[in-house]
Amino acid sequence: MNYDFYKKNFTGKNVRIAVLDSGVYLPDSQITHYNINDVRDGEKKKNIYMDYKENMHGTFCASEIRKIAPDAQIIDVNIADDLFSIKEEDIIKAVELCMEIEADIINLSLKMEKFSEKFFEKCQEAYSKGVFLIASSDGELSYPADFPDVIKVVSSEQDLEIEEVEENFISIKNYEFNCNLFGKVYKLKSSNSIACAHFSGLLSLILEARPLASNKELARYIFEDVMEDKQDIEQEGFVVNEKSVAAMSSDPHILINNLSELNKNIIGYYDMERKLFVNYKGEIIPDKDYNEILEINPYEYKRNLLTNKNCFRSKSHVYLGIFKGQSEKGYLKNHKFGRFHYINYIKKPVIFICSLGYSSSKFELQLELYKGLKEHNIRSENITYNPLGILFGFEVYDYPKNVNIPETIYSINHDLYELSKQESTDLVIANIAGGITQLNTYNRNNFGALFFAYRNAADADIIILTINSGINLDRLERQLAKLELENISKVILVISSQFYSTMQLESYDEVNIIPASANQLQSFYEEVKKRFSKYEVFSYNEVEEGKLTERMVGFYNGICEGQRAGRL
């Protein structure tokens, strides 16, 4: 984009730029002043020059716009209270005002840290009416900068004065900002806020030059080069061939117990004791009756191969998961880090399954929910990091070793959104790998980072937290308190079928799990239920009996009733 051409030939004439900020201290006849307190009370005072010397943020932003676009009409909308803080409801009211007075550009050199459905929808409404929304970002989650149709602006060290990073994403070179007000010169380092105002000014020049173009048409014009490069390449999913057999280290009963949902092309599994393939009745499958071996590693770490490939030379041999000696991660999807820079609003219900540690029966629980909800005609799309999910048609991802924020958040949000927007999808279930925290002070393994990314990628309607018996309940209490502070609406506790011993939990080595006895499970279940009485607690037996599914069906129907009531 040749911005110099527009700077030389246009001045922003007849373009209306609203500055939603702390007020503008510029006695300029081309500036119209509003105070959100008056607007909220039904009064729309304008052309009133206000003294905002106490906080110059809005004044500096307006000054930068004026330098770039000397003839643009600036609309000052003061949304700050007496303490110069900003409330979400006032920003929403200000956006409504901007639509009413037909602003062309809304400059939002500000940040809200939490996603808001109301704010999102108001920005969508403004965009649909042809308004440009320009917002600053600090490189972390920033709203409204991270809304899809808002142009995000950052200030950074770079060679180019201005760069279109991706669609709706602008980066402006750091420079010294000078503002001369009433004989006093302010010299400041460039900031994201000033960069945002700078681009709002530039955009007004383009709007003056192309007055009949819509905001969508101008966005395509500005970001044309990067939009061409952003064609998404879909990762090919794995197709199970006819007469395939499965070889895996985990208990084959996960296949046997879920035959109704298992891919119909998988006719049997590898019997570890007998060292041959059998069908689901335990009968030997002759070599001539199967065509392909699917070897599956359901764990997050590399394993040695279970079978000797030389014994099956005439058979196709496919690896699903991560194995030692295999360079490729067999048919696991990757989160597309760096390809997205915004947060979509996910309207369908979202359920997260997570655990305090790891290996806590999360995948088995996910299968139970998937199967049970389907019996009630509730269609779920599922994300997991367990390669066994491929056999059931789930979206299976490789566990990211580096969880970079906010790139991982954007990517996960995109993956959840793409699943949720399918017409056939009623809700989305995400089984989050690893744990929400480390098990002890020795074995950290980046636990909690992926859960943090998911938590910020979407507002989960319910979090199902699985717990192995033997876990320290004080640690559980601390984690639940953290979730409460983060306004997690609903947490359900499930006691898994696994057990951690005290010796394992205090080990420097990898923590292993063992099956829990019936007495251990019952005792731990009763202890958890008594200590955490305000939470719903389910034993794993109750999960298998369908009681958790019944709870999720009630939850889903309740959401549907609420939506219907809202429409009425």
From TrEMBL:
Name of the protein: Peptidase S8/S53 domain-containing protein
Gene3D superfamilies: P-loop containing nucleotide triphosphate hydrolases, Peptidase S8/S53 domain
Source species of the chain: Anaerosacchariphilus polymeriproducens
Domain (Peptidase S8/S53) ranges: 12-223
Any one GO molecular function term: serine-type endopeptidase activity
Protein family membership: Belongs to the peptidase S8 family.
BP term (GO), one: proteolysis
Active-site residues from the entry: 21 (charge relay system), 57 (charge relay system), 193 (charge relay system)
A Pfam short name: Peptidase_S8
Keyword Mitochondrion: no
Keywords for this protein: Hydrolase, Protease, Serine protease
